[in-house]
Amino acid sequence: MPGMRISRLASLAFVSLCLVSLATGTSHAADPVVVPDGVAHCQWLKIKAKGSGYELLDGDVGLGSKRSITADCYMQLVYMPGGGTTHGRYGAPMLCPVDFQNWAASPMQDSFSGVALQDGNVLGIDNYLTFTNAASDVIQGWGTHRILITVDKKTGVFKKATFQTLGAEMVDDSTYNLTPAFVLGSFSVTGSSVLAEKVPVEAKQLVTDSPCP
């Protein structure tokens, strides 16, 4: 009937108007987050590396048992302005136990290095990292990692930093020490910022010559 057809057309027009209004309302994206350069300088992070893979048997025999390795470590971020980047870089060695009595800092070539972005992301692309634990297991290899720095939106004061692995392979000297055997597989790292008083003395002693107080 004509009246019903007109009513349906009016309803469709109203729905279309609502959709257009919603699209217009969401087209104005919020202002991008701006995180002050260097705001996470000297911040501590507690991180956990988890590796999983297979033992590589001697003499090209093949692959052996599947092994899982974890390592709890710390890192203290150091901010470096410039260096060909707009917002600078962050770097940090991995501070980990190497046996039941001793700790060690990873060498520079096995430490985190990432480019800082305006929105608080710090991207470490093709970083080569080494993690150890008290059982003398080793997780080592290439990966792409992300640190996300968040700040107070009103004051810009540092709030938190989190660590995330986007993808990584466990190779080279990755070792399951009990066997012992080299392990081939993958690993991931997660972590978040902690107060300095929560950091073990053994880790702090490894960075006494850093630019941080």
Notes on the protein architecture:
The model is unreliable at about 1-30 (pLDDT under 50). The strands form two sheets. Strands 1, 2, 3, 4, 7, 8, 9, 10, 11 and 12 form a ten-stranded antiparallel β-sheet that branches. The protein has a two-stranded antiparallel sheet with strand order 5-6. About 15% of the residues lie in helices and about 45% in strands. The chain has two domains: about 1-30; about 45-205, no CATH class. The termini are far apart. The protein has about 210 residues and is mainly beta.
List keywords for this structure.
mainly beta, 12 strands, 2 domains, 213 residues, 2 helices, globular
Beta content comes to over 45%
C-alpha end-to-end distance: 82 Å
**Oligomeric state of the chains in view:** single chain
| Contiguous helical run count | 2
Report the major sheet: 10 strands, antiparallel
Number of strands: 12
What value does the average pLDDT take?
A: 88
Q: Please, how many domains? A: 2
Pattern of helices and strands: HEEEEEEEEEEEEH
Cα Rg = 25 Å
Helix content: 10-25%
Protein structure class: mainly beta
Provide the low-confidence segments as ranges.
1-28
**What coarse outline follows from CA principal-axis ratios?**
globular
Question: Mind sketching the topology for me?
Answer:
Elements: H1 2-26, E1 44-56, E2 63-76, E3 78-80, E4 89-92, E5 95-97, E6 103-105, E7 112-116, E8 121-132, E9 138-151, E10 158-170, E11 175-176, E12 181-194, H2 201-204
Antiparallel strand pairs: 1-2, 1-12, 3-4, 4-7, 5-6, 7-8, 8-9, 9-10, 10-12, 11-12
